[in-house]
Amino acid sequence: MRYGIDELLPSRIDLVHGPGCPACVTELETIDQPIQLASRPDVTLVSYGDTLRVPWSHSDLFRVKAGGGDVRAVYTPVEALKVARTHAERHVVFFAIGFETTAPATAMAVWQARREGLKNFSMLVSHVLVPPAIRLLLSSPATRVQGFIAPGHVCTVMGYSEYEALSRESRVPIVVGGFEPLDLLEAISLLVAQLEAGRAEVENQYVRSVCYAGNLPAQRIMAGVFEVCDRKWRGVGPIPESGLRLRPDFAAHDADQVFELS
Amino acid sequence: MCLAVPGRILEVEEGDGSRIARVQFGGITRPAYLDFVPEAAVGDYVMVHVGFTISRVNAEEAARTYELLKEMGLLESERRGPASSQDPRGGAA
Known about the structure:
The complex is a heterodimer of chains A (262) and B (93).
Chain A: H1 5-8, H2 28-38, E1 43-48, H3 49-53, H4 61-66, E2 70-74, H5 77-86, E3 91-98, H6 103-116, E4 121-128, H7 130-139, E5 148-151, H8 152-158, H9 162-170, E6 174-177, H10 181-197, E7 202-204, H11 216-225, E8 226-233, E9 237-246, H12 255-258
Helix pairs in contact in A: 5-6, 6-11, 7-9
Chain B: E1 5-15, E2 18-25, E3 28-33, E4 45-49, E5 52-56, H1 59-80
Antiparallel strand pairs in B: 1-2, 1-4, 2-3, 4-5
């Protein structure tokens, strides 16, 4: 939208955004958890700057900060560990949302916390996965989506083998695309070419960053730290096996368990 | 949130048990952990997301993208002809 590509395309090509950004697909009752924690006098709530700005059901994290809560923005989750190390008297909670792109960084931080035995650090994890959301869209009889641009940075981490089954089962073309205007145009062109030829395959437009297998070190740490779980998506309801949560051996760093939230 | 940004590695140092790169993004530099792309070296272009490199930009593929852009630029000036400087939409982004 930023480059006006939707206006430049022929009217017969309709671009639809989805499945949603990590913030807006997260259930309100989940989101109220970091706000509650941030309001506690003994807790320092840490997250990315853009997460802190998102308005939730009755507040946002910056407003909690303005009201006296200890809320801090970081560039990377590893910085939250530094806050915990230098403030042993406070419990530092990192609020981790995001798709697969962001999950490896979360995994590294909690892995380090466990390795160090950091007692005053935990994570509130609400990661979500893209392929189950696409599967749900494709399974709806009302869907009019004829092709997908798979997210290029999610696929940089995860590769694109997961999209092959989706493409095959639903007979829709899927192109892994980058984010520059040229990437978008090329991905759309590849999708249109497939549709016109009656093909339904997975192609990779974003070859300069994405390979078939994805980033294996990132996937390894994700598998060591997280397990797949069901997740409720705002506006959609529960999607099975569409989220990530901390494995039981990271319970000491799982804010859900440390603060008995659910 | 899902955007990763490309940058160029200026230097690499050890710290916290990890290799950390100083990466240049246009006019600013930020640190990026190299745990997920251990082969990345000074001079490489990498995609960085929340302080971690997630891929090394394939130089040949990046060059292909630039060639496509140049090709589009040539086609545009052929289409517009000698009055191209008066196009109100301006040049390619």
